[in-house]
């Protein structure tokens, strides 16, 4: 019970942190879900990692309720009738968010909020809507203080979407994370507003709507960091594979492709399936969730996720080539990803009905304790080539990932003077295959860690030992130190030559 | 035809509308007191003064010709500091066709290209060839950032074959102009009118230098001149900063913020929203 006592008496944690950790401690008093010795070895070697999901999972890691259906039908469990105006709609959403399970305890998906609220906003008029949406956003930031809480807007231009962007620029909150689904039909005027917002506060992301609709599902959402999953479903689990560590076990590149990687991927799939089965069969999640009973989620919209990271170091270790610098590195990178994906898809994914019975392929963004290993398939921070080469190197790798991938670009402050120029680059990047384009400015008060945002001022407070509302700040502070986040190359060199 | 290029910035947000590749050409015909990159003024004379100073060993003197190895250069710019001739050993020679191919590789990310410098119009023939080839193969626009101190005929020809001119007006007052740049501004005004008439004078840019052209009357005259030209050209006001300056102005402090906004208001009073610019601290 030592650990329980430690948690209870830890002065860097507040009440909610302690409650969360104590629950995890209780879960972890059970043995780990049944997995083979081989899989266990991969865990102890640091090749596989379940991102602290717990030994005996009792809820899916990511859930994306169908909030549209909720607003249309209301909820018997929550004793809520379908909302009739903006007040009731905002109230209903804020209530249901508290009832969406996840690993952190906070909902990772807030819905397509512009689409959900647009009819109510149009009826309520500009002034009232702005006031209510402001309260809604303040409420989300204060009550759900977690950088993985994710809101979606777009691709259509809406009054609500514009108001959200305007308010976010004003409020400067780290929460929620925001994604703009972007496609050819998104008007430039709306996209430019989103660019202006992202240049101020590091969000929204630009998401390649057309590609994800085709590759994943027409009704998808972006949750947590940048996980693309089916609305009305989600993902049971995310188990990740460290490509850098796996590469160290191989004699050479061929050995890696033919033996080491397939073996590790199969062990990864085994763990993922064991965890998904436990949630469905032992914890009987769907039988106990009102979201399932009321049809806001259905098992046929769920999947699981296999995450991959450290591709940069994997290629460097096995071939001596650097992704983004040496052209041949890209061929090796594609071979690695194709092998991993083919292996993963060679076996059934338990209860992965949402992605055709196969486990989803995901570029994992790293966690705070990772040291010297690059997230997903990104180029190592500080080693990025010019922005065009970076996009053209990473773009072809995004097509493999149906359940989430992103790349981060840092512009200098001159980008703020020319959001149209930034939009042109985003459009180009999406054409080159980038699925989630995240960007920020080098002087921003916000730091994009791996897939979530923290405020610089909060990191400083945390380092001074203050207890903070946002749980993601602690993760961010550690990640900045361990992953050289601040070394990301700034794009666009200073002022023009001729003043 | 080959161009002497000082550097290429793959994407710039401050050299014209949208996302643009900025291509800085070597060589200048003015001698501005506040020049922020004096290394772009002259061609390398192969004097070799920089060779021994290079900490990376990226410079060598081969048969009286200074050569630069980009692969080992650390970008410390020590060579620029020690150059006695306002030049650089780091220029590269580009064939027009190669430059066009390089630009087109990145076409999907760009609205166009902007030639800057130095004074890019000194290599007007090179710009014309690049522009012609580029327009055969893409919809990219070509802009030049220029001091407009070029023979009228050549300038006219250039303007007829590009999409936009961003023109520096260093000073309105002829005496002040000569003091600031070493040349008169009569020809420059003529070329402004030519570009304006052809509909390509995208913007006029003026750096406001403390004690020299930061007088309300000077700014009023510049704004009036722009207003009289047409109804579309923008005026960008830029506060002086001593970054990179080598003349006596290197010890002059930046233009104070209040002064900048006072002058900004003077210009706005005449041109309205056509004036823009930002005070950078």
From TrEMBL, chain A:
Database matches in InterPro entries: Glycyl_radical_YjjI-like
Pfam families per record: YjjI-like
Gene3D superfamilies in the record: 3.20.70.20
UniProt-recorded name of the protein: YjjI family glycine radical enzyme
Organism annotation: Carboxydothermus islandicus
Lineage per the UniProt record: Bacteria, Bacillati, Bacillota, Clostridia, Thermoanaerobacterales
Automatic annotation (TrEMBL), chain B:
CDD domains registered for this protein in UniProt: Radical_SAM
GO molecular function, one term: 4 iron, 4 sulfur cluster binding
Keyword Iron attributed: yes
Catalytic activity: glycyl-[protein] + reduced [flavodoxin] + S-adenosyl-L-methionine = glycin-2-yl radical-[protein] + semiquinone [flavodoxin] + 5'-deoxyadenosine + L-methionine + H(+)
The keyword Ribosomal protein appears for this protein: no
Cofactor: [4Fe-4S] cluster
Residue intervals of the Radical SAM core domain: 14-274
Ranges where the 4Fe-4S ferredoxin-type domain occurs: 32-60, 64-93
Pfam families, A to Z: Fer4, Radical_SAM
Keywords assigned: 4Fe-4S, Iron, Iron-sulfur, Metal-binding, Oxidoreductase, S-adenosyl-L-methionine
Matches recorded under InterPro entries: 4Fe4S_Fe-S-bd (IPR017896), 4Fe4S_Fe_S_CS (IPR017900), Aldolase_TIM (IPR013785), BssD/PflA/YjjW (IPR040074), Organic_radical-activating (IPR034457), Organic_radical_activase (IPR012839), Radical_activat_CS (IPR001989), rSAM (IPR007197)
Family affiliation: Belongs to the organic radical-activating enzymes family.
The name this protein goes by in its record: Glycine radical enzyme activase
Source organism: Carboxydothermus islandicus
């Amino acid at each position: 019970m030592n650990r329980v006592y430690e948690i209870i008496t830890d002065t860097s944690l507040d009440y909610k942190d302690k409650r969360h950790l104590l629950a995890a401690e209780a879960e972890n008093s059970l043995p780990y879900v049944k997995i083979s010795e081989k899989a266990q070895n991969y865990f102890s070697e640091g090749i596989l990692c379940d991102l602290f999901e717990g030994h005996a999972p009792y809820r899916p890691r990511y859930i994306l309720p169908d909030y549209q259906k909720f607003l249309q039908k209301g909820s018997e469990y929550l004793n809520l009738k379908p909302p009739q105006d903006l007040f009731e709609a905002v109230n209903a959403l804020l209530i249901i968010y508290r009832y969406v399970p996840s690993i952190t305890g906070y909902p990772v998906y807030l819905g397509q909020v512009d689409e959900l609220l647009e009819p109510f906003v149009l009826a309520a008029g500009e002034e009232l809507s702005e006031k209510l949406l402001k309260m809604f956003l303040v409420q989300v930031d204060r009550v759900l203080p977690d950088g993985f809480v994710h809101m979606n807007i777009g691709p259509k231009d809406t009054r609500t979407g514009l108001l959200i962007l305007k308010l976010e620029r004003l409020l400067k909150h780290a929460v929620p994370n925001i994604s703009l689904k972007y496609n050819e039909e998104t008007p430039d005027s709306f996209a430019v507003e989103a660019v202006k917002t992202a240049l101020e506060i590091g969000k929204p992301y630009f998401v390649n709507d057309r590609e994800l609709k085709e590759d994943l599902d027409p009704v998808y959402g972006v949750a947590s960091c940048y996980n693309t999953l089916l609305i009305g479903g989600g993902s049971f689990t995310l188990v990740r594979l460290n490509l850098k560590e796996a590469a160290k076990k191989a004699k050479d590149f061929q050995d890696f492709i033919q033996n080491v990687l397939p073996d590790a991927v199969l062990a990864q799939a085994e763990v993922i399936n064991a965890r998904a089965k436990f949630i469905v069969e032992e914890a009987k999640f769907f039988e106990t969730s009102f979201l399932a009973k009321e049809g806001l989620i259905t098992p046929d919209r769920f999947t699981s996720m296999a995450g991959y990271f450290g591709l940069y170091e994997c290629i460097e270790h096995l071939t001596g080539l650097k992704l983004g610098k040496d052209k041949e590195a890209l061929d090796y990178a594609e071979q690695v990803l194709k092998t991993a994906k083919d292996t993963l898809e060679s076996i059934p994914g338990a209860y992965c009905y949402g992605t055709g019975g196969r486990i989803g392929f995901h570029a994992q963004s790293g966690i705070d304790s990772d040291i010297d290993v690059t997230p997903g398939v990104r180029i190592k921070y500080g080693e990025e080539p010019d922005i065009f080469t970076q996009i053209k190197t990473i773009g072809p790798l995004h097509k493999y990932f149906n359940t989430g991938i992103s790349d981060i670009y840092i512009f200098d402050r001159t980008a703020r003077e020319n959001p149209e120029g930034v939009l042109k680059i985003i459009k180009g990047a999406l054409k080159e295959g980038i699925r989630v384009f995240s960007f920020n400015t080098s002087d921003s008060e916000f730091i994009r860690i791996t897939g979530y945002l923290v405020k610089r001022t909060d990191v400083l407070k945390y380092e001074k030992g203050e207890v903070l509302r946002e749980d993601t700040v602690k993760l961010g502070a550690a990640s900045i130190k361990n992953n050289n986040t601040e070394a990301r190359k700034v794009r666009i060199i200073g002022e023009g030559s001729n003043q | 035809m080959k161009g002497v290029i000082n550097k290429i910035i793959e994407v710039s947000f401050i050299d014209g509308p949208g996302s643009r590749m900025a291509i800085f050409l070597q060589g200048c015909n003015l001698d501005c007191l506040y020049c922020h990159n004096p290394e772009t003024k002259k061609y390398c004379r192969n004097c070799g003064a920089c060779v021994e100073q290079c900490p990376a060993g990226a410079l060598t003197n081969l048969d009286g010709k200074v050569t630069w190895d980009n692969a080992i250069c650390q970008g410390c710019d020590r060579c620029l500091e020690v150059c006695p001739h306002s030049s650089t050993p780091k220029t590269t020679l580009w064939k027009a066709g190669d430059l066009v191919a390089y630009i087109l590789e990145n076409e999907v990310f760009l609205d166009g290209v902007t030639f800057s410098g130095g004074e890019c119009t000194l290599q007007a023939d090179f710009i014309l060839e690049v522009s012609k080839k580029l327009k055969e193969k893409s919809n990219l626009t070509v802009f030049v950032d220029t001091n407009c101190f070029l023979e009228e005929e050549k300038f006219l020809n250039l303007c007829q074959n590009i999409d936009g001119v961003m023109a520096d007006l260093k000073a309105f007052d002829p005496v002040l102009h000569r003091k600031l740049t070493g040349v008169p501004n009569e020809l420059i005004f003529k070329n402004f009118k030519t570009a304006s008439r052809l509909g390509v004078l995208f913007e006029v840019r003026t750096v406001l230098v403390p004690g020299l052209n930061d007088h309300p009357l000077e700014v009023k005259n510049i704004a009036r001149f722009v207003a009289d030209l047409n109804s579309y050209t923008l005026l960008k006001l830029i506060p002086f900063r001593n970054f990179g300056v080598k003349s006596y102005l290197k010890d002059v402090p930046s233009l104070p913020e209040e002064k900048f906004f006072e002058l900004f208001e003077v210009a706005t009073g005449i041109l309205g929203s056509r004036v823009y610019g930002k005070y950078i601290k």
